[in-house]
Amino acid sequence: MVESDDHLPRLLCLHGGGTSAMIFKIQTRRLQWALRSTFKFVFADGPFPSGAGPGVLPVFAGCEPYFRWLNPASQAPEQDQRRVRQALRKVMDDDGGEFVGVLGFSQGARLTAGLLADQDERNAADGMPNWKFGVMLCGSFPPLSLSLARTPSTKPSQGVDEHGETREPEDDEIVHVPCVLVRGTLDPHSEKGRRLVKYFDPETAISMVFKMGHHLPGAAGDTTSDKGDTQKIVDAILKVYADHLPYEVLKAPKATAIEYGNGQLSA
Prior knowledge:
The protein is 25% helix and 16% strand. It has helices at residues 21-27, 29-34, 77-95, 107-120, 190-197, 229-242, and strands at 10-14, 40-44, 48-50, 66-68, 99-105, 133-137, 179-184, 205-210, 260-261, 264-265. The longest helix is centred in the first third of the chain and has 19 residues, at 77-95.
């Protein structure tokens, strides 16, 4: 008999662009198994139809429909924000449990970053819970905001000045909600992921870098990440959820995790 997980706090899971809740459920099976006694994983579909995203085919051929969180043909950003909020609220309302964290991959990680930033700046989208923590897997800059206080194009300030040059975030742009940020050294979006990290307080965030591409450790075809990388991510998630205190360095046997602290990468 399978034990019910209805008593557990919920972790809202947001898939990448061009995939789906069903696919993300498969992609995160290792995390789900490791955290099965701590969280109930609840998966949401993005509101916008999409073609298959990068890396989806041929592994998930025939698994249509595919969805995304960002509307590439947007003509009304506020309406798009509203559709995303409605999709998230419906999934959470249907479940009926207590949502404590949000976990996203790729485009879903950008949305996760936006939800945390909105909350930190007291512009939380209507109907969103008070997130205790977030997890961003292979995310990139900039975050996707759902706040009607501003449009996505002004959230945060795109990390560039009036001349289009990259810059460091201002103090009032730093997000203090506890979180875990994971990126791969072989990910073509790794630099945008590095920029995303800079917008999170190093006293409440754990940034981890693994030798992998734009996928989770142990994904189909992955030949570079270590077997213990998933457990390191699990340990980091448990830490930010358990105490919300300034993080401790996660020691890795093969130094696959890189500490982010004091505003600088150590490697």
